[in-house]
Design a protein that fits this description.
The complex is a heterodimer of chains A (about 800) and B (about 220).
Chain A: H1 2-22, H2 30-40, H3 42-45, H4 49-76, E1 92-98, E2 104-108, E3 110-121, E4 124-134, E5 141-148, E6 154-162, E7 165-173, H5 174-186, E8 191-194, E9 196-198, E10 201-209, E11 214-224, E12 227-228, E13 231-236, E14 261-263, E15 265-271, E16 276-281, E17 286-290, E18 301-306, E19 310-312, E20 316-322, E21 329-337, E22 340-348, E23 360-367, H6 375-390, E24 396-402, E25 406-408, E26 414-415, H7 418-429, H8 439-455, E27 463-470, H9 477-487, E28 492-498, H10 504-513, E29 518-521, H11 527-538, E30 543-548, E31 558-562, E32 575-582, E33 592-594, E34 607-611, E35 614-618, E36 631-633, E37 651-653, H12 658-679, H13 685-701, E38 709-715, H14 722-741, H15 746-753, H16 766-791
Parallel strand pairs in A: 3-15, 23-24, 23-27, 27-28, 28-29, 36-37
Antiparallel strand pairs in A: 1-2, 1-5, 3-4, 4-11, 5-10, 6-7, 6-11, 7-38, 8-38, 9-10, 12-13, 13-20, 14-19, 15-18, 16-20, 17-18, 21-22, 22-32, 24-25, 24-26, 30-34, 31-32, 31-33, 34-35
Helix pairs in contact in A: 1-16, 6-7, 6-11, 8-9, 9-10, 12-13
Chain B: H1 4-17, E1 21-24, E2 27-30, H2 31-74, E3 88-94, E4 97-103, H3 107-112, E5 115-116, E6 127-132, E7 150-157, E8 160-175, E9 188-196, E10 207-215
The chains are: A alpha+beta (about 800), B alpha+beta (about 220).
Chain lengths: ~800, ~220
């Protein structure tokens, strides 16, 4: 026994030595010293297990305390970046000031009037806001105009009037914008680069506002409305509940803010392209006028305005419901900009119908590579089990798991009856994550078995879907994309992203190529909800094999359409296609579909597809029967030559922003193309450069902010007193430079480059383990020592 | 507080209870001894585990370093070990310490070394490229990073090695949900991410320490 005890002491010694050795590089930093110091307090005070537990608690709190102390130090050194406009919920002009502690703060300036014009075309909403403010103080002031933007919106037009100065925003190439800004600064003029600090707040510096001077700000932004639960909703921010109030300012302005009213003129021109069931406003009474100038068209256009001049300061929310029928409904809009025709086609799904449920054959592919280890594989298995459980008995399914090689559950797909499901659950439970990511072989296996089934002439009443669960960490993206594009056939590929930082680029692209969709699951709690939504959606595609009919084009016409791959129409969301009609045969690029047929058939359908196993088509001539409306923008002089075409009986409206939508989609596609080139092992600099040029040109032509273009606003006059200028100039220059550095691009955000989920987990359990181990060792030694003491 | 006599009585009680013995291969072992040894073994396992985590993080860098040298010289991907699911794509040098950056910031990769987040811009190209690392192994040194520090990044661009210099422009602490820090930028930016606070023993903290560096 004594020998055993001695050897134990030796082992303990070794352990401590090992521990110190392991931590050696960090041994002498203050953090570790304090950690060890604290631990040394244990043996003296620990008498029983419970008291040790208490000690553990105190230890934890001690550690949290040191954590807090560090945080305070960090704050003192100004590392924390806090945005005073973070909680902004309504627009305003904020005057720069300094609070009691000498830190920068903002004061509200008084608002005189606000005019809002919203133009809705299908699912595009273009908003023009004009606001007037006044500098009520008797000194020169600097301010910031801030506007909380709705999701997926970007400001593309800006006009400022300060006294008799006019400042207009122009879209310039980024370097050029910076040059203009620098030059204006040197000349003592005011200039500002408009950048979006945060994706959802637009800010613009307004310098040198004279005493008593009025400031008029006009901005224009475009957003894509979301269709959810059968309705559209449009929101204009008016809420002031959470408005930022500097601590130093007088408190009385905050009180009763809910009951305050303000003068507001707000008009909505609503052209949805379909019959509408209902138009409602959530917080404000409205007056709705239906436009009368329709020629037998059932699709209506509405003018909506506020019933009161003074409105409650709550967000203006307008909802409308397109009337859906038993057939897919299509609406078409077009707009002429600079002599070119831009079009927007929207296809609404029919009302859900049980009879449309198709029998499906689903192949699940599960990534069990090493990168999935930990929480990711747990989530993936949970998602897979959920999906298998959800299958109807008339559906067929099979599971493929892959790491360094791919493995199938069965040779061919089996019906989803309870026995087969039970087998599948056993299979899923047995999976662990390890090894490489041979995604290519897994996809090949899936495509092979589909080809084999086709060759053996099995009945093809099954709609084939592939559900691919992975974190997308692959090095051969390019060859995978090629594999999908060449071998997809009639199948549909849905990607499901798992884990903290999955490769969203790849999975979004793969799903697009596979005519499916990408679903992202950030953590375990979301699995059921997200899978439920996806499975419900893919149960019954309403409209499949949708294609643009090239015969509908005139001679020498070509169509450049985005998205360039048309997927299927599902019950959850309408399909949106935007195109540009190129009149000359020379205009073509990789995304253009050239019309090779010289004789265009005017009656040929624009779109063809399959609905409920029958052919489906949509042609522009249907407009006369009221299925859709064709719209021309007449309020621009350059369109006058083209009005002869409106003899078809189309309705003249103010269709806006179709070209902007098209350009945004094009830029998003070009950015993805660029990214695809960048991840290839051999980069081709020339191709990337030409894509950058194309993105820049598209952005300049359509006046939008992009990765390579900025909105720059230069003040043409200089009116501030001399001494004021230098001060403000340096301050503004600093601010603008800081902003330039922080330039964050809402456009990139809006088009799938946005991030979701959490930042990766970057701590190990090593420290915690060490601490517990030390505690236990101490406890064991104590117990041994006590026993020895008792024996004596 | 118990008096001395009570303690004595208690210990006698426990002694009586401890007379329950097991006989294994002619040795008699009391329950208490088994208990003590069990604690010992458990403690050793825990120690071994934490030792393993640290060693793995240290040693894997040598293998990854070899793999990186090969990739840097030839442009061909060589996995650091045959069953690896990742490969090094760049070398990051902070305060004279080199790290080899793995592709894809999955939990497993992070145990071997700092890793590049696949959904951010690629390293060495324009945009915001994010690298995550463990606060208690590789990225512990971020604690001593200051504004203005230089960070060197070596990556392969079009058949040649490119070394870029970045200057630390911003240091902040954010919540793990604050993915704003990954947002695309028009300039070349490095975003280094590690867990915060540094000295905490909580293996799943909710805060992240962010070091941003701009290309100069």
């Amino acid at each position: 026994m004594a020998i055993l005890q001695r050897s134990l002491i030796v082992v303990t010694g070794l352990c401590v030595f090992g521990l110190i050795h392991a931590a050696a590089p960090n041994m002498f930093t203050p953090a570790y010293t304090s950690l060890f110091d604290n631990q040394r307090q244990y043996p003296s005070s620990a008498e029983s297990e419970s008291s040790i537990k208490n000690e553990v608690k105190t230890q934890f709190s001690l550690l949290t305390k040191t954590g807090t102390v560090n945080e305070i130090n960090v704050q003192e050194t100004n590392i924390f970046y806090t945005d005073p406009l973070a909680n902004l919920s309504s627009s305003g002009l904020f005057i720069r000031a300094v609070d009691e502690q000498g830190k920068p703060a903002f004061k509200n300036s008084s608002e005189l009037s606000t005019e809002v014009d919203i133009n809705v075309t299908g699912m595009i909403a273009r908003t023009r806001v004009s606001q007037t403010f006044k500098n009520n103080s008797d000194t020169w002031q600097d301010g910031v105009y801030a506007f909380p933007l709705p999701e997926n919106a970007a400001v593309d037009h800006l006009l400022l009037k300060v006294g008799n100065r006019i400042i207009e925003g122009q879209i310039k190439q980024k370097q050029e914008a910076k040059k203009i800004f620098e030059k204006a600064k040197q000349e003592g003029k005011k200039a500002s680069l408009v950048v979006q600090h945060r994706p959802n707040i637009f800010t613009n510096e307004v310098a040198n506002i004279g005493p008593g001077e009025e400031i008029e700000v006009s901005i224009e932004y475009q957003q894509t409305l979301r269709f959810a639960d059968g309705e559209y909703s449009l929101r204009y921010p008016l809420d002031i509940k959470e408005r930022y109030q500097p601590q130093s300012s007088n408190e009385d302005s905050v009180e009763k803010s809910n009951f305050r009213r303000k003068a507001l003129t707000l008009r909505v021109n609503l052209a949805s392209g379909t019959h509408l069931n209902n138009i409602t406003s959530e917080n404000h009474p409205i007056v709705t006028h239906s436009s009368a100038n329709q020629i037998g068209s059932g699709a209506s256009q509405y003018e909506i305005s506020l019933a009161d001049e003074y409105v409650l300061q709550k967000d203006f929310v307008l909802r409308w419901q397109p009337e859906l029928g038993s057939q897919p409904q299509t609406s078409h809009f077009s707009q002429w900009v600079n002599g070119e025709e831009y079009g927007l086609v929207m296809i609404y799904p029919p009302l859900p119908d049980e009879n449309l449920d198709q029998d499906r054959e689903i192949t699940f592919i599960l990534d069990t590579s090493g990168s999935m280890a930990g929480d990711a594989i747990k989530q993936a298995k949970q998602a897979l089990a959920f999906a298998v459980d959800d299958l109807a008995a008339s559906d067929k399914f099979n599971i493929i798991q892959f790491n360094s090689h791919a493995e199938q559950l069965w040779r061919t797909a089996k019906f989803a009856d309870s026995t087969n499901k039970a087998d599948a659950f056993d299979f899923i439970a047995s999976l662990t994550a390890n090894g490489g990511t041979e995604m290519h072989s897994a996809l090949s296996v899936a495509f092979d078995s589909a080809d084999k089934a086709k060759a053996e002439n099995e009945d093809d009443r099954f709609f084939k879907q592939i559900l691919f669960i992975t974190d997308g960490s692959v090095s051969n993206e390019h060859s995978l994309m090629q594999l999908i594009s060449t071998r997809l056939g009639s199948q549909r590929l849905f990607t499901i992203g798992i884990g903290a930082a999955p490769n969203t680029y790849f999975m979004t692209e793969a799903a697009k190529m596979g005519k499916g969709s990408f679903t992202f699951i950030a953590d375990t709690s979301q699995v059921n909800e997200k899978m439920q939504t996806l499975l419900e959606k893919i149960k019954a595609p309403a409209l499949t094999n949708i294609q643009f009919n090239l015969k509908a084009l005139g001679p020498n016409e070509s169509i450049e359409m985005y998205p360039d791959t048309i997927g299927d129409l599902y019950h959850e969301e309408p399909m949106v296609l935007s195109y540009k009609k190129n009149a000359s045969a020379t205009a073509s690029n990789q995304h253009a579909h050239e019309n090779t047929d010289d004789f265009a058939d005017i009656n040929a359908p624009l779109l063809v597809g399959r609905y409920n196993n029958n052919p489906w088509q949509f042609s522009l001539t249907q407009e006369l029967s009221g299925k859709s409306i064709k719209q021309y923008q007449q309020n621009k002089p350059d369109n006058s030559a083209l009005n002869s075409e409106t003899t078809l009986g189309t309705i003249a409206t103010r269709a806006q922003g179709i070209n902007v939508l098209w350009a945004r989609e094009k830029i998003a596609q070009l950015s993805r193309d660029k990214r695809k080139l960048e991840v290839q092992p051999v980069e081709s600099k020339e191709q990337i450069d030409s894509l950058v040029t194309e993105i820049t040109q598209t952005a300049l032509a359509h006046h939008i902010v992009s990765q390579y273009t900025s909105l720059v606003a230069v003040d043409t006059e200089q009116t501030a007193p001399e001494k004021n200028i230098q001060n403000q100039q340096s301050q503004e220059a600093m601010l603008a430079e800081a902003e330039l550095k922080r330039a964050q691009l809402a456009i990139a955000q809006a088009h799938g480059l946005s991030q979701q989920g959490l930042l990766p987990q970057t701590a190990t359990r090593a420290q915690l383990n060490m601490l517990i181990a030390l505690l236990l060792l101490t406890m064991a030694v104590l117990m041994l020592w006590r026993r020895k003491h008792d024996e004596i | 507080m118990k008096s001395k006599t009570e303690v004595a009585v208690n210990s006698n009680d426990s002694k009586r209870r401890n007379n329950k013995v097991f006989t294994i291969m002619h040795h008699t072992i009391s329950v208490e001894t088994i208990f003590i040894y069990a604690i010992f073994v458990f403690a050793l396992v825990l120690l071994g585990d934490s030792f393993y985590i640290k060693t793995k993080a240290q040693y894997a860098q040598y293998l990854i370093g070899n793999s990186w040298q090969y990739y840097a010289n030839t442009g061909e991907i060589q996995k650091p070990w045959p069953w690896a699911d990742t490969f090094p794509i760049a070398e990051l040098s902070i305060q004279d310490t080199s790290h080899f950056i793995l592709s894809g910031a999955s939990g497993r990769n992070l145990a071997f070394g700092p890793a590049h987040l696949a959904n951010t811009a690629s390293l060495g190209s324009e945009g915001n490229a994010a690298i995550a690392g463990h606060r208690d192994t590789h990225f512990e040194q971020l604690k001593t990073s200051k504004l203005g520090d230089l960070i060197y990044l070596t990556s392969r661009q079009e058949d040649k090695l490119v070394k870029q210099v970045f200057r630390v422009s911003d240091i902040k602490i954010v919540d793990e949900k604050n993915i704003d820090v990954l947002q695309e930028t028009s300039t070349s930016t490095l975003t280094l991410i590690t867990c915060y606070p540094f000295d905490s023993i909580d293996p799943n903290p909710s805060q992240r320490y962010i070091v941003k560096a701009e290309l100069i």
